[in-house]
């Protein structure tokens, strides 16, 4: 029975009254739901009778009480029991009733099971579960570090299955690529995580592949690219990445028909590093005028302005833009609604902000396999919150080969000629 006040009109001293009310309410609701489920099961089988006319399934008291960890805390429940005399013809054994609400093996709710990996991935060490969640849930049952150990083994299997899945039925029209350096143990100091995120024909975004390698190595990038092609991946229409990546060499080998778009954030940082600090604010504004121009013609005019302003004094900085002008302005051939997505590798950078937070908290992730597994599960957990690109209906038109001028859809040349 729930005690709201003591005999001397004071509230209970141990724990929170609010938490106690919530737990008692949860216990009563769960008990009522279990009884209702049991009654419905017995009523459904009321016509099942033996040769003497006696019912085959009847109520038979309760199971032993057990403690169950829920989001409302630890509650004690007693599940109703049914006496089922029917025989399973396939096994020759008696049938028995199993609650869908509270299976026999259940000791904590699925929400608690989901919370454990999220807490671990977002910085709570496995040894910190008991003291942290015991205060919140009122018990430490089922929250041992061994639980997380079992989860990590499952995560490794999930990552292996992800890296071996069939890509023949998936069409990635755009892809962002980057090599992310993290504070995790990947066996070599220069090692990093090679990431591809793609946009499907319906405009949705999803992780394509995630593997360790060397950021500047074309051969390291060729490994995941060849693997994607082996599993049936179609060549993307456009790939967006840092101009310094060895990825471009791998892309030319595996998917030579894919267009290249260099990331303006990486390029801007690279150019400004070549300038004295006094010139950087003005140069940054001029560079922004290029990639924020209303169309390709205005962007080219902005490149000329940048060359006139800084070419005489800082030719190396200007050359970083002019040499890659075609790859920097490739996004202007696509829908204007997509320009904001295609100018940079921001989808990868924003996603890996959470990954960096976790790896910083753990100060390393053990083995190479454990490190990649942790990064994979972190990205997977954030992927559910990724939104589709602007004007997602236009992505399918891009794949179909539609032409865009000044960011707007135009008729095909052969259609106009007709």
Task: Give structural notes.
The model is unreliable at 1-6 and 8-14 (pLDDT under 50). This protein has helices at residues 17-44, 110-121, 129-137, 145-162, 218-230, 247-254, 264-272, 280-291, 296-310, 315-322, 325-328, 339-342, 346-362, 368-383, 393-400, 413-417; strands at 57-62, 66-70, 73-77, 80-84, 172-180, 191-200, 205-214, 238-241, 259-262, 403-405, 408-410. The longest helix has 28 residues, at 17-44. It has 418 residues and is an alpha+beta fold. Helix 7 packs antiparallel against helix 10. The termini are far apart.
Beta-strand percentage range:
15-25%
Weakly predicted, low-confidence segments: 1-6, 8-14
Average pLDDT reading: 79
Give the CA-based shape.
Answer: elongated
- Please work out how many helical segments DSSP would assign: 16
The spatial strand order of the largest sheet comes to: 7-6-5-8-9
| Class per helix and strand makeup | alpha+beta
Largest sheet: 5 strands, mixed
Cα-atom radius of gyration:
30 Å
Distance between the termini: 84 Å
N-to-C SSE string, H for helix and E for strand:
HEEEEHHHEEEHEHEHHHHHHHHHEEH
